[in-house]
Amino acid sequence: MTQNGDPGSDTTPGANPAEKLENASFSRLQAALLLIMILLLASGLFIMKHKQRLSAEPILLTEGDPSVYQFKVNVNTAGWEEIALLPGIGEGKAKAIVSWREKNGGFKEPGDLQAVDGIGPKTAAALDEYLAFEEASND
Fold first, then answer.
1. pLDDT beyond 50 at 18
2. For the whole model, what pTM was predicted?
3. Measured between alpha carbons, how far is 116 from 123 in angstroms, rounded to an integer?
4. Cα→Cα distances 77→48, 56, 137, Å
5. SS3 letters for the chain?
6. Distance of CA 45 to the CA centre of its chain
7. pLDDT > 90? residue 53
8. Separation of alpha carbons 18 and 40, rounded Å
9. Interior CA angle at 131 toward 130 and 136, to 5°?
10. How far is CA 1 from CA 7, 28, 30, in A?
11. Distance set, CA 8 to CA 4, 5, 15, 25 (Å)
């Protein structure tokens, strides 16, 4: 308590600044709690302001017509990573396709893929709509 009865201020002449800090009515804990309360209030105000955007109706995604999408992979130029994305293929078959292509040259039609181990007539026919057979350019 100070001379004027105010617990928050020390007007004692010659008082050390450290003593004044010790006598301050606002501790570090109280300051931290006040800061937390201010941040909570600010975030609450932000949420209230943007509530309409946060509570918007969800967008319903429906499956589209597959014929609309154009997804063609040129098996004569694509890397195994791209070929592996094709349905029924995977990393192993994709690497086998690239390996066969490097040893034997390019493919001309889906049926040519049957020369690769692990690819039969059903797989080759299923891939038909996803494949392109352009020759690799020698630039």
1. yes
2. 0.49
3. 11
4. 54, 45, 9
5. CCCCCCCCCCCCCCCCHHHHHHHCCCCHHHHHHHHHHHHHHHHHHHHHHCHHHHCCCCCCCCCCCHHHCCCCEECCCCCHHHHCCCCCCCHHHHHHHHHHHHHHCCCCCHHHHHHCCCCCHHHHHHHHHHEECCCCCCC
6. 28
7. no
8. 32
9. 150
10. 5, 19, 19
11. 10, 9, 14, 5
Per-residue tokens: 64: 């589209």
Look at residue 1 and tell me whether its pLDDT is greater than 50.
no
| Token code pair at residue 78 | 């694509």
Asked whether the CA dihedral 64, 69, 75, 77 is positive or negative, the reply is: negative
Please give the mean pLDDT across all residues of the chain.
79
Kindly report the CATH class assigned to 66-132: mainly alpha
CA nearest to 86, candidates 68, 96, 71, 98: 71
